[in-house]
Specification:
CATH topology: Spore Coat Polysaccharide Biosynthesis Protein SpsA, Chain A
CATH superfamily: Spore Coat Polysaccharide Biosynthesis Protein SpsA, Chain A
Largest sheet: 7 strands, mixed
Distance between the termini: 119 Å
Helix content: 25-40%
Order of helices and strands: HHEHEHEEEEHHEHEEH
CATH class: Alpha Beta
Radius of gyration: 34 Å
Number of strands: 9
Length: 318
């Protein structure tokens, strides 16, 4: 018997004998199946690429968000000519530093009572604490020039950036105003600043005493290449400041305030305005009305001052 090799596949002429419509339908079905396979493979590749991209973006966002966030608290009253210089210049300065995000809180006190820088700082902290890790209590008329001045997170203790060695105007050893960086935990530890200092001045001296009483180290810039004349730009417009202190007020404020601070500040927010300066520089202005117990601190009132000196509320610069 002659052996034959039998194919496992149907002979070609069997396909040729199929109806033309059936043959075309089979070819079309096979092509569609191949297209589906190709599309599925491309989809898988795109999904993998999307996962990688998403992971990279998440990691990048995590690295950025891991840096402590800074809230710049600016106690303020009627200083808009200085504000439009301050926000752009400090923004550009901070963008050159390796720090996390920063935001300006302009704490604009209403005219009902005399200016109170310490109480405004307490209000600013309460507004900012959920979206920040540390604060800079910052005068609106003082702008850093020396690039070695660092706004980085003050982990070890309050960092007095405008040290008396470099401030253009105030140079006594215990000076503690101008620009001060402190982290949230430490600010709460010392109960913030006193609420009793209505009228300009001395609130930073009380704050210095609070920091010392809490045994926190005070850190300051060292060995800068500049001096008092060229470390900061001082843009104060020489308006009069309401710095009058009666004997009664001096007697009370001579002792460190252990009763008032962050824990019992009373205030209301009358308005909030998001402002953009020169199309690029954002800040938020809060119109703040402070409360005052006129029995405990009668010097919060403008009339109190006029009993002792011939000056009115229009003389206030801050």
């Amino acid at each position: 018997m002659t052996g034959r090799c039998r194919s496992e596949f149907p002979p070609l002429n069997m396909f040729l004998r199929l109806p033309k419509r059936t043959l075309l339908l089979g070819i079309f079905t096979a092509c569609m199946f191949c297209l589906l396979l190709i599309s599925f493979n491309v989809l898988l590749q795109n999904e993998e690429l999307r996962d990688v991209t998403s992971e990279a973006l998440s990691n990048d966002r995590l690295v950025h968000d891991s840096k402590p966030r800074l809230a710049i608290l600016v106690p303020f009253r009627n200083r808009f000519d200085e504000l439009i210089v301050f926000v752009p210049q400090l923004s550009e300065f901070l963008r050159t530093q390796d720090i996390g995000s920063f935001k300006f809180y302009i704490l604009n006190q209403s005219r009902r009572y005399r200016f109170n820088r310490g109480a405004l700082a307490n209000v600013g902290y309460l507004l900012a604490k959920r979206s920040s890790d540390y604060i800079a209590i910052h005068d609106v008329d003082l702008i850093p020039i020396n690039k070695d001045l660092s706004y980085s997170y003050p982990e070890d203790g309050p960092f007095h950036l405008s040290s008396p060695d470099y401030h253009p105007q105030y140079n006594y050893k215990k000076y503690f105003g101008g620009i001060l960086l402190i982290n949230n935990k430490q600010f709460e530890l010392i109960n913030g600043m006193s609420n009793r200092y209505f009228g300009w001045g001395l609130e930073d001296d009380d704050f210095y005493a609070r920091v010392r009483a809490a045994n926190l180290p005070i850190l300051r810039p060292q060995n800068l290449s500049t001096d008092r004349t060229n470390t900061f730009l001082h843009i104060h417009n020489n308006q009069k400041r309401d710095s009058f202190k009666s004997k009664e007020q001096q007697d009370v404020l001579r002792r460190r305030d252990k009763q008032t601070g962050l824990s019992n500040i009373r205030f209301s927010i009358n308005a909030k305005h998001n402002i953009t300066i020169d199309d690029h520089y954002d800040c938020t202005v809060y119109n703040i009305e402070l409360s005052c117990n006129t029995k405990e601190t009668p010097w919060c009132q403008h009339n109190y001052v006029r009993q002792f000196a011939n000056r009115g509320p229009n003389d206030e610069a801050q």
